Structure formats: C-alpha cells, structure tokens
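Re: How this chain folds, sequence and tokenised backbone to follow
Notation: Tokens come from a learned vocabulary of local backbone shapes, not from coordinates.
Start of record: The labelled sequence and token lines come straight after this line.
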Amino acid sequence: MNASLSTDAKDALAREMPGADHCRLALLGALVTYGEVRGRFHTQRNAVARLFWSLLPDRKSFVIESQPVKRLRGGVDYSIRIPKEFLGTAHKPRRRCDRIMEARAAFLAVGSLAAESAGYHLEFTPHDAAPAARLEALLAGLGYPPKRTKRKAREVLYYKHSDTIVELLTLLGAHRTVLALEDIRAMRETKNRIHRLVNTEAANLDRSAGAAASQRRLVLEISREHGLKSLSPALREVAELRLKYPEAALAELGARCEPPVSKPTVQSRFSALARHLGRLRGEGSGT
C-alpha cells in the first residue's frame, strides 16, 4: 500500500539543498558513508543521484551512469564515481544540524517508508555492520533510538510507531510526506469508525431480530394455550401487533399502538406476557 511514499519522500528531500556549507559537506559525506559500493555511489532514484552530483566540488568531472536492475521490473540503478578524497569513514558530525543531514542522507541512501495494513514502517538497511552501528548511535543521539533486526545477513534498523516515524520524518525535513501520512491515518481512522458502526448496527439488528422472534413464539404459545382474547386490551394489542409485524422493532410497535407508547412500555408489556405464559404453564401443570 502507498508504495510511492518512499520515492516521493526521497525525491522531495533530494530537492532540498542545505544552505550552510558545513551541512552540504555533512550531507555529501553521509551519502558516501551509506551509499558507497566499490568506490561508487549507488541509488535507484535519479533525484538522489543528481543531489549527490550537485554536492561534488568538481562535478564537471563526473557523470551519472545508469543501468537497468534485473531483479526489479522497471528499476534503474544510478551510480557516480566517488572522488578519492571522500572515500573512507567520514568524521562524526558535531553540530546537530549536521547530524540531521547525516540521518537524511541515510534515508536517501538506504531508507524506505511504507504505510502497511498493520501501520507505518520506516527502516534503514545499511550495507554492513559498521555503518549500521554508526547510524543506530546517530539516531539514538537525535532522540529516536531504532529497533534492530537482521534480514538476509544485513542489519536492519526500523520504526513501527506512527508518532515516532512522523516526528523523525519532520526532523529530516520530509514535510510533504508527513502530510501524506496524516491523510492516510485520518482515512484509516474514518474507515475504522465506519466499520465499528456497521458492526455495532449489525449486532443490534441481530439482537433485535432474535428478540422479535422470541416474542412472536411467546405470543403464539399464549394463543395456543388460552387465546389472546383473555388478555388485557394493552397486552392483546401488543401481542397482535407482533404477529402482524414479526420483524418490527419495539419502537415501531409502540408507534403503532393506540395511543402510541414508548419502547420501554412495549418491552414491559412483553415481560408481562412472559409472566402470563408462566402462570398458564403453572396452572396447566397443576391440573
């Protein structure tokens, strides 16, 4: 569901160029840290590739290369050669804004976002253990410690709690994606309320139908045992209405009485009919 959330978020973030030189340098270094494979930066998003290219000091000397990804239908791998001076482990940023840029770069390089049937899911899948440990410490330092697991020998850092995901995406600057997630959440809550109301109404109808059937059987048994003419006018009226309208709700029966009576009054009259049948049975067993 909403498979475009990741791509939309990445494309939007890739268009957000940091204003400060140190933030741009932190973003570039982090893209190398999390997106480097054998001396090249790899991504499946053209916008992210163009961001990386635009951050290079001498970008005229570098080109974005692309080739199809066989295992992904319609997928394309974009790659750029990384300058030698940027290869190796980047220094850990000291400024908070630079740490946020590193977290943003990690999402652009190895992150994914989905709105699943069970809820939101945000994860990072670094290429090996070292960047995974670095990213885990970075996210925890920003106030959002991730959960950790392994998938096919790769470390996976992930979040499931919707509020945490929204807060982290807001911190990274993915504001449009946050609005999209809030729309999805509002839609789900509306659907859930509708389902609850429908289920409640169905249960009420089931109970009402069951009660109406029991009341009809009660009236028929009284009619067979002693007839309805022996009943008081009020009890006879509600008994005859139940036979005439076997599926009607109590409120509807009450509205058809002369004069109309309330639903509790109709219920009270059926209780009186049940007691009357009990007395008839008692009289019958004593003869």
Observations:
- The CA atoms of residues 33 and 89 lie 7 Å apart.
- The chain has a mean pLDDT of 87.
- Residues 4-173 form a domain with the Endonuclease I-creI fold (CATH 3.10.28.10).
- The chain has two domains: 4-173, 204-286.
